[in-house]
Structure formats: structure tokens, C-alpha cells
Amino acid sequence: MGEELVACDEKGTAPQNWQLPSESFLLFLQKHRVQLVEDLGDCIDCIAERGLQENFLSKDDYEEIVYERGPRNQVRKLLDIICCLGEEHARFFCTISKQIKSTNSKKQVTKNNEYPKLIQKHKDVLLRRNEYIKYYNSRHGEKYCFSDHFVNLLLVNGHYTLEIKKNELLTFGQQRIHLQNKKETKLDLRSDQLLQKLHERCAPKRILVSGVAGIGKSVFVQKILYDFANKKAYSKFDFALNLTFRDLNLINKPTTLREIICKKHGHLSQILDEIFNNSEKLLMIFDGFDEFRFCSQVDLDQYVFDPDERAELPQIFSSLLKGELLPEASIVVTSRPTVLSHIPVDCIDRFVVITGFSGLEIEDYFQKFYRDNVKGTETFGYVSENHFLFTLCYIPAFCWIVCSVLNESSALHIEQPKTMTDIYCHYLVVLLKYHTRQVDSTKHEAMLNAIIGLGQLAYNSLLQHKTLFYGHDSEIINELPNDIVNSFLDNTFVQELDCTENVLSFTHLTIQEFFAAFYYAYEVNLSYDIMDTKVQEKLNIGSGHLDLFIRFLSGLLSVRNQSIFQKHLRLNGSEKVESYTLWLIECLNKSCEKGYFILNLLHCFFEQQRSCLVRRIKPAVLRLNMSDSIFSPIDLDVLTYFLGHVDMDIEELDLTATHVNAHYLTELLPYLNRCKQLWVGENNLDLEAIKVICKVLASPDCKMKQLGLGWTELEDNGFLMIYRALKYNQSLEGLWVEGNCISYTAVEEFSEIPSFNSTLKYAVLLGNELKPDDLTALATKPHRRVIVAQIDNDFGQEFWKGWWDWIFQRCKMCNDEKIVAFLTKVYRGLGLCLGKNTGWMGEWYIELDNFLQERIMNCSINNIKKRIETLKQMFLEQSTNL
């Protein structure tokens, strides 16, 4: 019956003909069932339809077959039915299967000849779709060639090891600098190296590309597709398919991978089988995982194995990502860092962070934006001298906003921007003046109502944690003038079977928060007051989610921006200026006294740019807690601005786990002499940073009593630098250097410190590189009492209780991911600590065990939950060795 359906028997030989007289057709089907399932999957639809037409199958039989998930399951079901129907049906089945397979083989030959042409056709389609780069708010008809306007983005190997606790755009700054400046390994990665193997490892197949909003993830995807279509890179692939989660959100019923692809790449429908069969030549890109409405449901243990198997969308995506579906295909996923914890990272081969523009790339962007070398150079020169603006410009979306504002604001005679809100206020005025058809339309009440309507959309969406809006969902959008919609909203049309779906979003996430703040500032009758803590609890608005909103609100209610709106938008002053000012002063005083996290309030104070407010800031003590917020240059600006205005002794400055470095400490040097407690632990401090701290300690004006340098990678050189600086210090009482890399040799020298310093009472060295013999030797030193190298009863339970309370308090402040990172360091410190002969330490472990168990029960992210469970077991085993 031909070779198309011939299958190998158990001995590896193939029967020459199905109609061998020695066996029946039924026996043949039973004997070669496994191979038939493999061979007939690509033509099961045709076989089933032919069987129905020839009355060889009943309608019930046919429906049972086609409702099976996947072609292999359908072949299995058909074979089961044939075996029940008898020998004659088996003969008929073999006959029509041979005919259909023969026909398909001839078609396949034709397909093989056409295959190169279809590859080129696909590249032509991609080139047409990606030859122009889209600038935010481009005027109608404006087009910019991608090759002429693309500016390189810096990519680094690595990923976010800590949560982005506060607004991701504003906390990413220092981490970005840390990644870009890291010298111990080459991290830079060109876009064409994304799927190439580095060193001797095999090429990665599952790549996660992360970056904050506006950093250029979608443009990076466009770069991949553009280079692939132009044959500049990714030559090992025949096809590159891109899908956005924004479009996938419109799928609300079970589907198949084939259907998903055909929605956007319908021109490939006839050769998808060929593409699937050669999946090692396939690159699939999924853009915008953070916008996926099912992002929390992808870490599943239920898999799809066939492109034609019908399943829910998260199941299909999860199967692709984990290599259960098309395991040889290469998958690239882009996402903002806020939802990375939902991705099953065990299946990711390479983590890449887009860190935006460097200084040279910012300059390149200005030149390409203005298309005028003189103006581009002049404007870049102004921005590079403005530390605040230049820092913002590492984010491409901000870079575009700054360029747009500076390009046209001079004609409006507006003072140059000083804060982030200033830039956005100018941006609003510029777009209303120059990007709407009616230049004077801002004078009309209708235009103001439209802006308020846009603000209402932004505000209500912020309450609901929404960033995407669908045309059929919002009456507000339908009531807005097209000019307003086109200026501030991105519009995507997605073709469905029976309609075209309209999907909108603000051109940038920060613009949504700006408009939300604008609405709050000027709307009298709010449905919900988002500043009310009870409302925040009701709407599940967590800590840090409103940081940028409140900063924008502070800037909008400042005197200078109120004046701008009155002049250019004919907008009356807000009635909330004084009430907001009272709230800000009250919060600043309270946070300073209690030591609450204060960085966002300092940003709000900076946004006001009113030095007269300082007279109303009168806390009893000044405690500034910045911990666990990755410090950026802008954060440094607002901190020094505040300390420069508030002339008080600093009771406590907590910079734990902020990535501070020598540069930041140098900028803070004028204020550190009036600081009594300084905590800079969990930062990787080099010798330059330690030199700055030593300069403070050696100053005759130093008031520091407690210094925390735990888990800072401190080594002997740095530790002995501190030792020598303490020869000139008469204020420090406690030095905390636990969890570092200090050897016995350095500790032995340091133990002589009581001979010349009478104020230092203890130096805590838990978890350093000390062996049992070292501890014994230290015990014989005449000045050993200042060295605290193990947990014992010498310093008493109360002393150690204070240390443990501090650790436990940190845990309560951290989210689950941060807890794992922090407690792993604590575990190492306790594990390296010898001589734990105290009965009361057992109470710590019981308290910690209960705490971790509660976190495990409330953790909804599987991979983090497993890590906490592992950590809990580690501490349990450690406690048994007390």
C-alpha cells in the first residue's frame, strides 16, 4: 500500500505492503499503532472528513474524533473506533489513508519548493510592519524610518534580584548604574547576541528581557524583527513571530497555538505544519508580560503538547515557556520587573536587563530627534548640565518627553523645569498648544472638560489597578475629542472574528499617574478619595503604589505650576493647596520622629520648591529611614535638598540596602558629621566608600555613636582603615560589621583599640572568617572585651535581643522575595558563628519558624513560596545544632 504509512516493527524492519496475506488489516493497525499515530497526525482532518462523506464513519464517530485535543489524540480515537467496527472498516481505512497520504506527499514536494519563497514573503511582511519607528504623540502622518532613528539600548546579562518596592522608574536608577559599571565580568550584550551562546555554554532557548516602563522593551522587539527581516542577524531562524500580551488579552475562550499565530500572521496558515515540524528554526517573541491579565496563572503543572490542542491561554503560554510545547523553538519574553515573580524562572536560560541609554546614547537620541546638529548639540548641552533632567533621560520615554518640552516650550516663555512634575506640566501645555488642530482650543471650556475627563479615566483606572482600556468598556473615552485621545493615548486595533476591538492605554505609565494627580487636584466631588488610608485598604492599594501619584500631586499644587495652568489653560487655582501642604508638613514631622520610611515625602517636599515650608518642619528628633530603596541620583538630590534646609542633628540615617556608594557618601559628607546613628549595611562598599566613612569618624566634629556596616563585603583592608580612623574619634560607641570577610589577623590587631580609644564599647563581628582556635586566642587578649565574635552570655541577653529585634523588624517590613535574600545572609552569619551556648537563642528560632510559616501560607507565587520553605528548613536544621 505504499511507503507513506509504512511503520517499523519491533525488530526495526518495515513491512513492504499492508496487504500481506499473512495478517489482517485489524492486526496491522494494532501492530503498528504507535507509528500510525505519529504518521497520520498531519492528515487526520482529511481522513475523518472522507470517512464521514463515504458513510464509513457516523456523525457521532466523527464528532468524537474532532473534539479530541490534538491530532495525535484524534488518530488514537479513530483507531479505537475502527477496531470496534471490524475488518472491512480497517481495510477501507487503510485504503483512504494511503490515498490521502500520497496526495499530501505530492503537495509536500510543492511546499518544499515554495518554502524559501514563503520565508522571504514573511520577512517582507515583517519589514513592512517594522520599517517605521513610532514616536509618542507624533503628528498625523509623521513617519520616521527605524534605521535612521533607532538609538542603541544598553543590555546587560543579569536580572532583578530584589523587588522593585517603590515606583519602579524612580528606584531603578542606581541599580542601572550598578549594572552598567560592574567590572568583575563582562555584562554588555549586543542585541544580535541575545540568542547566541556565550563562553562554552549551549545557546539559550528561553530568554527573559526585563526593564522598567518606557525603557525601550517594545522598540527592542522591533529591532529584533527589523534585523531579522533585513537579514542582519538571527540567520539561524527561518521564521520570527511576535505576539503582544495586549492582543492576547482579547482571547477569552480556549484556543490553540495555531489559532493564536494565525490571528496576527495569517499569511503563514498554509505552512504552519512545516514551521512546527522544524521548530528549531522558529523564534517566538512575547512582548509585555506585565500587561497579561493572566500573568499570575502561568506557573502551571498542566501542559499542552500539540499546537492544535485546545486549551486556556495561560496553559498554552506556560507550556511554550517550559518547553513542553515546541521544545526546540526559541522563546523571548519581555516584561516590566513588577511581575517577574510570576514567571517560572527555573525554565529561563538567560536573564537580560535593558538599562536604557548611556550618556553617549542620550546625545545620539537628541541629534536624531531634532534632525538638526546645531539644535541637537545645544539642547543636549543644556540637559547635560541639568543633573535632574539628564538623569531622567536614561529612560527613552522620558528622553522623548524632555526633547518635546524643550523643543517648543521656549515659545511659551515658561521657566525651565526644575522637577519631574514641571516637565509633565510643560508637556501637557505643549501638546495642547501644538498637537491639537485648534491652536487656541485651550481657551475653551470644552477642552478643559476633556482634560478633566482624561484625568477621571486615569484616576479611576489607578483605583482599579488598570493600565489598559477597551473601547467598549469606557464611556469616558467615547466622549473625549479625537485630538485629546490621539495626543495622550495609544490606540491599538485588534481584528476579531466578528468585530474590531479597540485597545487604549496612556502613552506612558507615568503620564497616567500624572493625569490621575491632575484630576485629584482639580475635581471637587471625588467618588473615592485615594489619599484616605481606609480607601487604600478597601481597594488593596499597597505601600509604594501611590508614590509617583503623590509626587505629581505635590508638584501640581505648587505655586509655580498653579501659575502656569492659570496662564496657559485659563484654569482656576486648586482648592486643595493648603490642605495638601498641611498633610505634607504633618507627615514629614511624624515620619522624622518615628523613623518611618520617608524618601517619597522628601520627593514631595522637593517638588514644592518652597524653602519657606522649612519653618513649619519641627520634629522632636530627626530620623531618616531610606532602607531597601535602591538609591538613584534623583533620590540623592532630594535628600541633600532636605538636609540643606533642615538644620538639625540627625538622630538616625538608615541607608541599608540602598546601593549607596562612594559618590553618594561623598555628596552626603557635609551632613554625616551631625549624624548620630548611620546604617549602611547590605551595600557592597569598596575601599573608596570606606575612606569617606573614615573621614567622618576622624573629623573633630563627628557625633556618630552607632555605625552599621554589616554584610557590606568588608575585608581586612577596609576594617583596619576604620581601626586607624578611630584613633581620632571620641564619639563612636558601637560598630556593627557582622557577615563580612574579616580574618583573625585583622581582628587581632583591632582588639588593641581600647589602648587608645575609650568610647568604643563593642565591635560586633558575627559571621566573619574566624575559626574556633581564633576565638580561643582572642579570649586571651587583654582587650578582648571590645570584640563580639560569637553569641554568648558575655554581653547578656538584652544586648542580643536588641540585635535580633532589629533583624525581625526588618523581616516584617520586607516582602517575600526580600525576606529570602535578607534571611539567607542572616543564616550564613549565624552558621559561621561558633559557641552558641545560649538557651534563649532557641526562642528566636521558634519565633522565626512561626513567622516563615505564616508567610508561606499567604504567599501566592509558587517559586518564591518554595524558596521560603527551603529557608525555613535550613533554619530548623540550624536550630537543632545549638
Summarize the structure in short:
The chain is an alpha/beta fold. The protein contains 37 helices and 19 strands.
Could you characterize what this model shows?
This protein is an alpha/beta fold and 882 residues long. Among the domains are: 152-356, 3-Layer(aba) Sandwich (Rossmann fold); 414-568, no CATH class; 649-789, Alpha-Beta Horseshoe (Leucine-rich repeat, LRR (right-handed beta-alpha superhelix)); 803-879. Helix content is 50%, strand content 8%. It contains 37 helices and 19 strands. Strand 18, helix 33 and strand 19 form a beta-alpha-beta unit. Helix 3 (44-53) runs antiparallel to helix 4 (59-66), helix 4 packs antiparallel against helix 5 (71-85) and helix 36 (841-858) packs antiparallel against helix 37 (862-879). The protein starts with 24 loop residues before the first helix and ends with a helix. Residues 1-21, 160-187 and 438-442 have low confidence and may be disordered.
